[in-house]
Amino acid sequence: MPIAKPKKKKAKKEVIEVDSPEEKSAEEGLELEGLSSRRESESREPLTPEAPPSPPQKKKKKKKAQALELEGDQAKVANGEGAEQQGEGEEITRRTKRRKKPRAVEMHFHNELTVEEEELSNDHAPIQQRSLFSAPTGPAFPMGKVFVERNSEHTLATSRLRVDLQLDEFMEVRTMWSTRDVAMRVHSGFRVIGLFSHGFLAGYAVWNIIVVYMLAGEQLTTLPNLLQQYHPLAYPAQSLLYLLITISTISAFDRVNLAKASMALRGLLTMDPAALASVLYFAALILTLSQQMTSDRIHLYPTANETLWPPGSEQQLLRPWVVVNLVVALLVGLAWMFISTRPDMDYTEEFLMAMEVEDYRHDEKLDIPT
Amino acid sequence: MRPTLPHRRPVGHCDTALVAAERRVHPALTQKNRQDNQLNERYQVEVAVTGVPGQSLSPWANTPSSAPEMLQTNNYSLVLLIQLALLTFDLFVNSFSELLRAAAVVQLVLFIIQDIGILFNVIIILLMMFNTYVFQVGLVSLLLARFRALLMLSALYLTLSICLHCWLMNLRWMASNRFVWTDGLQVLFVFQRIGAVLYYYFYKRTTEYLGDPRLYEDSPWLRDAFARARQ
């Protein structure tokens, strides 16, 4: 709308001139130059202000203020009106500039902006005159210095609100860890490992007993076949079983907070899943360890055949071993099911968060000190 | 001038419990205490900023970790890493040392390193206890009462490990791949492995507990405990 442009320009001039006395009374003057380059900068260094320019310079205004929040707000309001007049390229540029808004807003709160002279463009393209509420559509390079009114009542209120919101984000981004956070993170990490161990142990124990029964045949009639086929796996399986049961047991103790014996006992009496799982895992651990001797005997079947395995002794030695392995598989499977009913329950985590340092005075007789 | 706002952790359900627990633990936190005033001011500023009372940090968590008398996060993380590495190595040796007995010297070296690792773990946990403010003010009995289970278990586990390793090496030194098991060895083996599980659990729990910043600074409950100890 070329006819309207001069009018808008005059209106702008009037606004600027009206604002200038208020700016004079403002605590800090603002001088903006080269907004496009600053907008994309991620630097957070406070920008030093320049001396307030003389009033005639205020009249020269190139709207590069899309990086500034105030002018961004105007663009927001103006887009409804100015969208028709803008080309697609300008809209894309505007959207790109709007994406930079959060960073530009942070820069905005330093209250000081400076644009280097060299950033100003020498290409003095004619400034398109637009209405007061339309978004700027000029080229995306600095054309001149712009003064923005600050520290008015409205701007201060809105800026304070934005400060609160932005500082919340800033604080979340710049979170500092304490030693308690580290401890909690380690505890959570071990809980994840324990959760994996529960499932892997249950599956491995079931697989192991299925292999043993398949090799041993019906009614355990082909035990020599079991010895012949299984002897390389016996000791590694025993070692892996101990490793997984250990991790699972510690994880179950953590969930039930075993060190607080009163709490653990109460959980056991109330059929708490974590307490039951702890008992099952501990029983499985004892049974597994009790079979260490037999597993070593199976492992040494090829080398010491007649001394360790006299003829007819397979039933006497292997039947208890098979039964114990079956019981271990049932125990760890059942414990895994109990854990799975409430996988997020962890009393030790709550204890670590509270960390009552005085409880030793009250629960000396009931609790196991850490 | 807006005061410097403290950091903020991700808010979870335990934060509210922490604040409530700390208010319960420190009932003498009043406005008369100058330090408490400053902490409360910071607390109120944080509430004003976030606008959500109860979700803010406790005053204790706001204490900067860079104070010289505090346990610094980096140091604690490093120590925790070392401790966990030693525990992991101990668990690895307990699980797979029987598979690595092709040469007796291999098992011997593993057992020696394991026993030294247990000893180092005990030393590290004692040093962490000595580094607490509770110990430095002279309340040794409080610390010992609090951590006696771990100390006793560590000593018991170290004893059992050394006995088992000596017995196994004595039996396997001449022929490493032969059947050496007896009932007594089996019993000692079971007790040593069960002791290992309890040792791992209590040790992990203790190292996590020693990350509490309140053990490294003055507090009303510590003053009360000190007054009781002097009586």
Automatic annotation (TrEMBL), chain A:
Membrane topology: Multi-pass membrane protein
Major localisation: other
InterPro entries (alphabetical): TMEM237 (IPR029409)
One of the protein's GO biological processes: cell projection organization
Skewed-composition ranges (Basic residues): 1-12
GO cellular component: cilium; membrane
Region (Disordered) location: 1-102
Keywords linked to the UniProt accession: Cell projection, Cilium, Cilium biogenesis/degradation, Membrane, Transmembrane, Transmembrane helix
Subcellular location: Cell projection, Cilium; Membrane
Pfam family, one: TMEM237
Compositional bias segments (type: Basic and acidic residues): 13-27, 36-47
Protein name (database record): Transmembrane protein 237A
Automatic annotation (TrEMBL), chain B:
Residues spanning the membrane: 76-93, 105-129, 149-168, 180-202
Gene Ontology BP annotations: cell projection organization
Pfam families found in the cross-reference section: TMEM138
Membrane topology per record: Multi-pass membrane protein
UniProt GO cellular component terms: cilium; vacuolar membrane
Cell compartment(s), UniProt: Cell projection, Cilium; Vacuole membrane
Coiled coil: none
UniProt KW Secreted keyword: no
Keywords: Cell projection, Cilium, Cilium biogenesis/degradation, Glycoprotein, Membrane, Transmembrane, Transmembrane helix, Vacuole
Keyword Ligase among UniProt keywords: no
InterPro entries named in the record: TM_138
Domain of life, per lineage: Eukaryota
PANTHER family for the chain: TRANSMEMBRANE PROTEIN 138
Free-text function comment from the UniProt entry: Required for ciliogenesis.
Family named by the database record: Belongs to the TMEM138 family.
Name of the protein: Transmembrane protein 138
Species the sequence originates in: Coilia grayii
